[in-house]
Amino acid sequence: MQQNNVRIIRFFHQIIQLFNANAVYSLIFINFALMKFWRNFVLIVLILTGVSCSEYDKLLREGTPQARLEAANDYYSKGNYFKALQLYDQLIVELRGLPQFEEAYYKYCWSNYQQEQYLAAAYYFKNLAKTLPNSKYAEESLYMSAYCQYLESADTPLDQSSTSDALTELQLFVNKYPKSEKVQQCNELMDELRFKLETKDYNTAMLYYKIEEYKAAVVAFSNLLKEYPATKYKEQALFYILKSEYYYAAGSIDSKKKERFEHATKAYTTLMLMFPTSSYQKDAEIINEKIKTQISKLN
Q: Residues 54, 57, 63, 67: what is their CA dihedral angle, to the nearest 10 degrees?
């Protein structure tokens, strides 16, 4: 195409020389000629595309189920999932109860997936597994339904309802197909999703601590440890429970201080028992000395 442009420029340049035009007018003339050439080229492409689209639209409106199926399968095999999807959308209604339905529905599910319509794909994959439990695609479809839910899992700062939904669907697959080769992958995905939930809860607890809502922080960190006993945030959570208990006690009225400092002492003991070589040991010991000092003053 670049060589064609060069030939065109040379052609018009020769014409300019014949008319002995100056350099400015030469450039204007050449640019105008090229614009006209490309405008005509684009027009031809649009016409050809329009013909192609009109044939496709006619197939959607008037095509027989067999013609639509052949075209849909052809588009699908060529990776044109957008056009395949529109055709399969009609075919799954027209072919219901027929031998071709299972294959068409399966490709319809995958077309949604390839178009990154993960929620729709999750729904249709699960529906295939449910309505055709004896299908050769049933196990794969149930897994893909769960995997699509995993892909829709929200980022950590956002609401994690979608993450909980994905966990439920992955566990459902593992329960139904415990010997599947996909079980290990499901477990890995579930670990990833659980960590996302842990991180969300940990960040929420930390927010309470940062805004000096120490009682709420203690509750939030404690709930994190109850919900996820093996959480990676266990050491941090225990340390911030200690700090929150200390600051909560320090800011309390005198009649409540002793009891609350004693709670802080228990938090220190728990941290040291669980993590005797904790990276927070030095800071924890400093806080514990402050707690002892305050208790001694209150006795």
A: 80
